[in-house]
Amino acid sequence: MNKLSARLYLGCVMWLAFSVLHCAPPGLCEGPIGPETLDPTNSPCTVDCECNNQRYTGYCQKNGVCLSSARTPCDVPGKKQTCVLQQKDEQSGCTKGIQTCQDDNLTDKYWGDCKLEFTPSTNEFKAMCFDGLDNDCDGKPDALDEDCQETCKKGTEAPCFNGKESELNVGLCKAGLRKCQEDNTWGICEGEIRAKEELCNDQDDDCDGQTDEDFTDKGTPCQRGEGACLAKGNMVCAKDGNNTTCDATPNQPTLELCNDKDDDCDGQIDETFADKGERCEIGTGACLRTGTLECKSNGKALECSATPDSPKAELCNDKDDDCDGQVDETFAEKGKTCEVGKGECRNIGTYTCSSDGKSLDCDATPHAPQTELCNNKDDDCDGTIDEPFPTKGDTCEVGTGACKSQGKFVCKPDGYGVVCDATASPSAVETCNGKDDDCDGAVDETFPQLNKSCTVGRGECTKQGLYICQANGSGTTCNASPGTAQAERCNGKDDDCDGAIDETFTNKGNNCTNGIGACRNQGVFVCAADGFKTTCNAIPTSPQTETCNDKDDDCDGFVDETFVGKGTPCTVGQGECLNTGQFVCSPNGAGIVCGVLPKQPQNELCNGKDDDCDGQTDETFVKKGKVCKVGVGTCQKTGTFVCSVDEKSTVCDQQPGTPMVELCNGQDDDCDGSIDETFTNKGQICEVGVGECLNRGVFICKADNSGTVCSVQAKQPTASKCDQLDRDCDGKIDNTSPTCYDWVATSISNLPTTVNAGTRVAVFCNYRNNGKITLSSPQIAFYRKKEAEGPAL
Predict the structure, then answer these.
(1) By the 8 A CB rule, do 524 and 537 touch?
(2) Would the pLDDT of 34 be above 70?
(3) Cα-based distances in Å from 472 to 10, 429, 618
(4) Left, alpha or beta for 573 (phi > 0: left; psi -120 to 50: alpha)?
């Protein structure tokens, strides 16, 4: 019985034994070594790890039965030693390998699986990669062996690309070409273009399928220059590709004119015309008009916006009517001293303008004439002094006898007559009786008030009289009687004779104002001309052009009414610097400005706001809004970069999916970055069938994803021939051809090498009908192994 027959026989016996014992197979495991510790020998199996566990090493035979042996304990984890390979590995031609004490698959100190190890020299290795053999006994010949991936056949060329596979043929990325060198190694990859940092150049430099994506402002509107130099354009790539620049070309600055434009492009408008907008006057006198300094039509200077009024004939009115710079110049006596009245009525004043403005009037009023007294004055203002007293100055005598004296008539002290200035000697006590009792030449001289003016009553009831002698001569008394009281009027008089003047007009003398707005002036209440009321003596100021100053300059009852936006809401700044206020008057009063300043800019955060107030939101967070990925394998989720909670960076708005048990399906189900890693034989070479039905493929995933299966089926068997091949695939060579036998050499003549008689010759079985075997000329004679089976050929 040959080896194959013996194996089949042993397998049948083992299967029968298990069938009788009804021993259930262990559960399906994963990886090279299962978690069990029981002896799996002769157990039914489908994968090697059912026969290879923590205490036993083995494999699943082709007949579905475990072949295992007990592991040997070891003392130092990681220690290595040589070992004999299992039978399945010996079929590849290798018999020895290396095993490790408590390798990564074992939980205790036992020797691990015996594994192939092959370390040929460099030159040997390179040659072996092209001999069609599996020299390192790993089941992978030549190019299928990972160890040969970096070798090549001299003179060959191949495309190459050292970047990420996902970047190849995306954007600028493309493969290059490498040539195999004399030492069977690949040369450098020439001509390849790999991903690099994205530049702004209208190309996809980083090979991510997007062009210039890091330059988010590209194509957005922009402007350069100031004032008249301002030009608009779009943001385009800079020449060095490292950033963007505005493609607008500013206009050239020109000489600054006065035209409400920034001609010299320095950010200031009409700055060389510093007085622009200031208040100005044009004309003189009554022709004077007020305006503001504004640009001339040629833009080279300023001129006043006002137009002077036309001059008129000069009047006397304290104004320059003819606009010659002089006021009332044709009235030369104006302001000079003038007199009115005669005698005691004479009064001094100043020449002032008449009410019609055509002449001058003396502003003095003559004193009222009085009764002519003897006092060396013209009391009745007729130009003659003391004319009712013709004897004044004449000679006179006083007294009689010894009392008689000579003198001249002089005015009496009270002015009511003349008296001789001589004094008679007294002879008796003077009494008031119209006589010179004491002979002093004076009558009643001891009564000085006699015949003098006197008043009785108060206010307008006052009446004037003269002091006369009392009836008993002891003194004087006033001969007048008070007048009748009248209703009080406002006239500076005590009409009701109560000692108070204008007392019923209680606001007289109080402060008052006249006019509105800036024209309002302050005065006091005085009596009106009719005497029945009071009136304010303030004269309003002339209205002016309305400016923005919270005042009613034009005196129309409205404040700043020509500045219609004043007090309405306004905003300044942008982004988070935006501030809201109200329009208020500008400092020069020529217009209105917003009454608040922009808020201070802050460092830009990621929060959907323009913190640094440059008109852009979150612009420093270039990833925001772009596609992001989290997790690996089937856990990978696609989301969008959004702002982090602390607003200082961006984060992906997705969470990785939940890892699953790893299946054999070409996907990373457990999300550890490896695909089908628990199916270690996936992609390795596998064999199915025996004899000429033997077919080689690679292990691939099963349809239910539970494990791996060989990618090919066994070839179909054919009829047996006497050609040393197992064509019917039953594990036996030529088992159905009665004329095909094993042959032994009986002659050693003409053989290329020495062959001992009786040695089996394993060459092609070129069977012929005449029974002869011909290898090459000359022929060699053979005999059947058992002569009873036929004659010698």
Answers:
(1) yes
(2) yes
(3) 192, 14, 120
(4) left
Q: Residue 117: what pLDDT?
A: 61
Burial-class residue 256 by CB neighbours within 10 Å (0-12, 13-18, 19+): buried
83: which strand partners? 97
Average pLDDT for residues 614-623, to the nearest whole number? Answer: 91
Residues 662-667 have a mean pLDDT of: 91
End-to-end CA distance of the chain: 26
Nearest to 328 by CA among 283, 286, 281: 286
What pLDDT shows up at residue 42?
87
Residue 656 preceded by cis peptide, ω within 30: no
With respect to residue 5, please indicate whether it lies within any of the assigned structural domains.
no
pLDDT at site 584: 94
Alpha-carbon distances, residue 42 vs 22, 25, 38 (angstroms):
12, 10, 12
pLDDT at 114 > cutoff 60 = yes
HEC sequence for 466-501: EEEECCCCCCEEECCCCCCCCCCCCCCCCCCCCCCC
* The predicted structure's pLDDT at residue 374: 92
Instruction: Round to whole Å and give the CA distance between 669 and 727.
Output: 43
- How far apart CA 586 and CA 501 sit, in angstroms, is 53
> Exposed, middle or buried, 596 (CB in 10 Å: 0-12/13-18/19+)?
middle
For the segment 406-426, the average pLDDT, to the nearest whole number, is 84
Each residue of 419-451: b (16+ CB within 10 Å) or e?
bbbbbbbeeeebbbeeebbbbbbbbbbebebbb
- Give the 3-state secondary structure of 89-139: HHCCCCCEEEEEECCCCCCCCEECCCECCCCCCHHHHHHHCCCCCCCCCCC
Containing domain of residue 453, as a range?
369-478
pTM for the whole structure: 0.29
The CB density around residue 319, as the number of other CB atoms within 10 Å, is 17
Is 107 a domain residue? no
pLDDT tens-place string over residues 49-69: 889 899 999 888 888 888 889
Six token digits for residue 470: 């009392």
- Using pLDDT thresholds of 50, 70 and 90, give the confidence band for residue 790: very low
Decide: 42 and 14 in contact? Cβ < 8 Å: yes
Quick check: 659 pLDDT over 90?
A: yes
Report percent pLDDT > 70 for the chain.
Answer: 81
Greater pLDDT, 31 or 581? 581
CA–CA dist 601, 575 (Å, integer) = 9
pLDDT at 121 over 50: no
Domain annotation covers residue 473: yes
What is the rounded CA–CA span in Å between residue 491 and residue 507? 14
- Which residues lie closer than 8 Å to 545 by C-beta, 6 or more apart? 290, 291, 553, 554
Phi, psi of 10 (to 5 degrees): -60, -40
Burial-class residue 233 by CB neighbours within 10 Å (0-12, 13-18, 19+).
middle
According to the model, what pLDDT value does residue 692 have?
86
pLDDT at residue 792 greater than cutoff 80? no
Residue type, 14: M
For residue 427, is it within any domain? yes
Q: What percent of the chain has pLDDT over 90?
A: 35
The structure tokens listed for 718 are: 């054919």
In this structure, the chain runs to a length of 793
State the total domains in the chain: 1
Cα separation, 525 vs 514, whole angstroms:
11
748 vs 94, more confident: 94
User: Distance between CA atoms of 286 and 308, rounded to whole angstroms?
Assistant: 9
Q: What is the C-alpha to C-alpha distance for residues 287 and 326, in angstroms, rounded to an integer?
A: 12
Tokens of 649: 């960076």
